[in-house]
Write a structure and sequence with these properties.
Elements: E1 4-5, H1 15-19, E2 25-26, E3 30-33, E4 36-40, E5 43-44, E6 53-59, E7 65-68, E8 78-83, E9 93-97, E10 101-110, E11 114-123, E12 125-130, E13 137-140, E14 147-156, E15 162-165, E16 167-168, E17 173-180, E18 186-188, E19 192-196, E20 201-208, E21 212-218, E22 233-237, E23 242-243, E24 248-251, E25 255-262, E26 271-277, E27 283-286, E28 296-301, E29 307-314, E30 320-326, E31 333-340, E32 342-348, H2 357-360, E33 371-374, H3 375-378, E34 383-391, E35 413-415, E36 417-419, E37 425-427, E38 431-433, E39 439-446, E40 450-456, E41 470-476
Parallel strand pairs: 1-10, 3-11, 13-22, 24-31, 33-41
Antiparallel strand pairs: 2-5, 4-9, 4-16, 6-8, 6-10, 7-9, 10-11, 12-14, 14-15, 14-20, 17-19, 17-21, 18-20, 21-22, 23-25, 25-29, 26-28, 26-30, 27-29, 30-31, 32-34, 34-39, 35-38, 36-40, 37-39, 40-41
Length: 477
């Protein structure tokens, strides 16, 4: 039932006193929901004297509006506030609404300052409910941790939408029961909550149990309305998902590690997850980095764990291959990899492979990564160049640090290096990148001042990159 209050008065200052320069008061207008409260203050137009000022604040209609000098105390028709010496503002007091329509005034009076009226617009109120992150619906899974539910008291506007969060009126308590449309999907930890006077929030939790969709609705207590928004929160209990490495490039005869992630922790026995390649002649899967894989493998995720490691190995340099992760009680997931040509690149040991910009910004073909070596220093500090195994960018044929990948198990690669000017320096050759490794170190030996170019040959079965196949070396005295 709607309760209406109305007045003809409006909030005014004692204009005559202000016009004459005499001190006065100013009282704010505000909106308060039914059974709720808002704090306000009365302002002085000039500072209070050393003796302070006593202000009496009176509701002009106690059936619709009460006042309290403390956030948790019941309201009264009239209260008295003391303004401290030299202050321009009264202590806070609370305006409590008892109706949900109309306007009502309150009067503030102080000796030497006259009186003033403030207008309060009365509004409907509601108890709203929100899930985690204060959203109206949220996903969860059957074995997930409980999710927080929050109830708030709020004033509503004329369209019954949330105007603002406001406290329950002091001295009262509101009991709210939360209805659950699907108890099989989960339960509410404390289905009945108490919002005490002076507070605007109470919390409980939703504990998921099985797949389903539970609509959680706080039943409006007496004197509260059903809001046009946030009247319910929906807990969507879904089968948990799996996540795998997806949308990446893998070079022929190379491998990359992958990480399986679970959407929720497995039960006491753990979880067995099967990974299956869509084409075992091109893409293999392995549980160990030192073991050649197969078209299908099974990972065991222990209880309490959420991840497991695996390895992807390529046998081809063309096409796109997918692989699928499946597990009982979980949604399946598909990962995709683009197969590409592989190559080897060479770089000065301290520089490392070309920066990712070589591929991402297509700058690799123009990069001069020459290095400098001292004849005297090299006698005590060896100079190294490094050969890296890489996949080549499918579009440009370039390589960089982000394309470095190790050799798959069961394969090692021997690489020949050459110095263009043996009178300036020589390079150790051949060198072998071992299975499971992504590089091998070769020693450059300076001989005399000058410049030479160290180049790397392309092994059988590999392609020649468009960059980083040679590195200039400048030898100084």
């Amino acid at each position: 039932m709607r309760t209406v209050c109305g007045v003809a008065a409006i909030a005014i200052l004692t204009l005559a006193r202000l016009a004459s320069g005499a001190p006065g008061l100013a009282a704010p207008s505000l909106t308060v929901g039914r059974n709720l409260q808002m704090y306000v203050t009365v302002r002085l137009t000039e500072a209070a004297p050393q003796t302070g000022v006593r202000i009496t604040v009176t509701s002009d209609d106690p059936k619709c509006l009460l006042l309290s000098d403390s956030l948790d105390k019941p309201g009264a028709a009239s209260i008295t506030l003391t303004v401290r010496p030299r202050s321009l503002e009264s202590p806070e007091f609370w305006v409590q609404g008892l109706a949900d329509q109309g306007n009502v005034t309150y009067t503030a009076t102080a000796t030497g300052f006259g009186s003033v009226k403030g207008t309060v617009t009365l509004a409907p109120s509601a108890i709203v409910i929100l899930g985690p992150f204060r959203v109206p619906s949220f996903p969860t899974t059957p074995r997930s941790d409980p999710s927080k539910l929050s109830l708030f008291s709020a004033a509503l506007d004329s369209s019954m939408k949330i105007l603002e969060e406001q406290q329950i009126a002091g001295g009262s308590r509101v009991e709210v029961h939360i209805a659950n449309s699907d108890s099989k999907a989960g339960s509410v930890g404390a289905p009945t909550l108490i919002l005490a006077g002076g507070r605007s929030e109470a919390a409980t939790y939703f504990k998921p149990a099985a797949e389903g969709k539970a609509t959680l609705t706080p039943n409006p207590p007496p004197g509260f309305s059903i809001p046009a928004e946030f009247a319910t929160v929906i807990a969507m209990v879904e089968k948990p998902g799996l996540a795998v490495n997806d949308d990446f490039t893998l070079g022929k005869d190379l491998q990359v590690p992958g990480v399986l992630c679970l959407g929720e922790s497995p039960g006491p026995e753990g979880l067995r997850v099967t990974l299956t390649s869509s084409d075992g002649s091109k893409l293999l899967l392995s549980t160990r980095e030192d073991q050649l894989g197969s078209a299908s493998v099974t990972l065991h995720v222990p209880a309490g764990e959420l991840t497991a490691k695996y390895y992807l190995q390529s046998l081809s340099d063309t096409g796109t291959v997918t692989y699928k992760a499946t597990a009982p009680g979980f949604r399946s997931r598909i990962g995709q990899t683009t197969l590409a040509r592989s190559g080897v690149i060479v770089a000065y040991g301290r520089y490392g492979p070309p920066d990712e910009a070589a591929v991402l910004r297509n700058t690799g073909a123009y990069e001069d990564r020459r290095f400098y070596a001292s004849l005297s220093d090299s006698k005590n500090q060896p100079v190294h160049v490094v050969v890296w195994s890489v996949h080549l960018d499918p579009a440009t044929g370039l390589a960089a640090d982000i394309t470095v990948q190790p050799l798959r198990p069961g394969l090692s690669v021997t690489v020949s290096l050459k110095s263009s000017n043996l009178g300036v320096g020589s390079v150790e050759s051949p060198v072998t990148i071992q299975s499971g490794s992504n590089h091998v170190v070769s020693r450059f030996t300076p001989v005399s001042a000058g410049e030479t170019v160290i180049s790397v040959s392309t092994p059988l079965g590999f392609a020649t990159p468009k960059n980083a196949t040679a590195v200039p070396a400048v030898v100084m005295d």
